[in-house]
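Morning, I've got a small favour to ask if you have a moment. I'm working through a protein record and want to make sense of it properly. The fold is given in discrete form, as structure tokens running alongside the sequence. Can you walk me through what the tokens say about the fold? Thanks so much in advance, here it is:
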Amino acid sequence: MNEATPIEQNHETTAKSVGQWFQEMPLTRTHWVAGLTLFMAFVIESWEMMIIIFSSGAIGIDFALSSEQIGSLIGAMFLGMIPGALLWGKLMGPLGRKQCLMWSIGLYGLFPLISAFAPSFEFLWVIRFLCGIVLSGALVVTFPYFEELVPVKVRGTATVYLSAGWPVGFLLAIAITVLFTDLGWRWIIGFSSVISLWAIVVAKFVPESPYWLAEKGRTEEANNAINRLSEGALSASTRPSENSADGNMAFMDIFRGTALRVTAVQSAINFCFAFAYWGLASWMPALLAERGLSAPQGLGFMAISALFMFPGYISASFLTGKYGRKKVMLAYVFISAIAGFGFAMSSNLAEMYFWNFTLSFFSLGAWGVWNTWLGEIYDTSNRGAGTAWGVSAQRVANAVAPVLIGTMLAKTSFLLTVGFVALFLAITFFAAIFLPETEGETLR
């Protein structure tokens, strides 16, 4: 009898659940390539959410808009993301993670081009609403998709790093705004049409989720995906999924049984955390102008603030792998709330810099943890629906915040406005106490 080769001896052939294979899986080059590809997908989302804010002043002048109308235009994309997130959350089941991401990014490129030729405020508002419906697919899919591709031992650390795509997109939006300023806002927005090309990169370099394939009963494809991700270190044989016979659980299952409590808590966190962040971000140029900064100075201020997000993500990534999601999330949100109140009470530019940079560091670090945590608190059958519902709650906040904060700025003080926003961070803190820890746990 021939002896097995060393490689064959290292291969596991016993049938296991997908989660068990990911407990054993090494981190490979394939993970890095897939991670960088999905990282850029999140960069695109950030870029597109910020570009309308940086263009809003020029659009307001061109169409003679009031501050309320500008706030409404900023919120249009987020209003579109509310039904869009629910739609894509439903499609993640039958179509899969990869197809949804490719279709979302691929189709999105049409709408910035149309926006660039908008003849009126009303037309532009409708197009931005449609932008939200299409792009929300990428927002819903990216994080749960990535979590279903990486080994359990690095899932938390790696997914927090994925969140660092936000400041990269933020800075990219600033750079594009500066680059095309002389050509006007239509060029700034229209340039985003190049985004659709990234769907080709996703198609080539990112495998479909083995969890989803197993849920659909496509065990051979799930085995192939696991083998591709492990680069031959594993020879997977997966068991049929224990969660669902066909992987088609109803969307409304997140509102039943034990999932209902999780859905209620994560909804509160998503709404309040998004309201707090976006309430400041959407009106930061106006807030800075009120404190005497010119438009170029304001963009510089926000660019430096974005740089402080990176160490926030790095520290949160390290700490969540060591202490878990809950402790890091609570600590970072608590400090963010203090920083928010400090920013509101700043009496000079130096204090504004200090408190805003502190806020950037800790609030975005907390977002990195939350983006990771949200995808882990549901099983595979409900992960798409749960994430979609959470994103919808965020987008409700994103749509409401610019209008409400714009109104408060016009009728109340800077201190009262920013202090009101910071209260939502306090609510986020208390809600996070009620979610289970997921660090080191196998995805169900």
About this structure: Confidence is low (pLDDT under 50) at residues 1-12. Residues 102 and 200 are 8 Å apart (CA to CA). The domain at 11-238+247-432 is CATH 1.20.1250.20 (Growth Hormone; Chain: A;).
